[in-house]
Design goal:
- It is a single chain.
- The chain has 68 residues and is mainly alpha-helical.
- It has three helices and no strands.
- Helix 1 runs antiparallel to helix 3.
- The longest helix is centred in the N-terminal third of the chain and has 23 residues.
- The protein is elongated, with a radius of gyration of 15 Å.
């Protein structure tokens, strides 16, 4: 049950961080270059939720008992 909870928390963090990263892509049509975009999202704390969430999901998936 703990692994399922960790997976769901990681999934929620990954979704919120991914949506934020995609939302910030609206700066690109305004004239912001890709380099400036990556520098901008590297400085935003809510964009770090995506890699943290993916990491938590990976931990939950690799540690889940496999009873085959």
């Amino acid at each position: 049950m703990v692994f399922i909870f960790i997976f769901l928390v990681g999934f929620g963090l990954a979704v919120s961080g991914g949506v934020t990263i995609i939302a910030y892509m609206n700066f690109l049509p305004v004239g912001v270059s890709w380099g400036d975009y990556f520098v901008f999202i590297a400085g935003r704390p809510e964009c770090y939720l995506f890699p943290i969430g993916v990491f938590l999901m990976a931990i939950a998936l690799f540690q889940y008992p496999n009873n085959l």
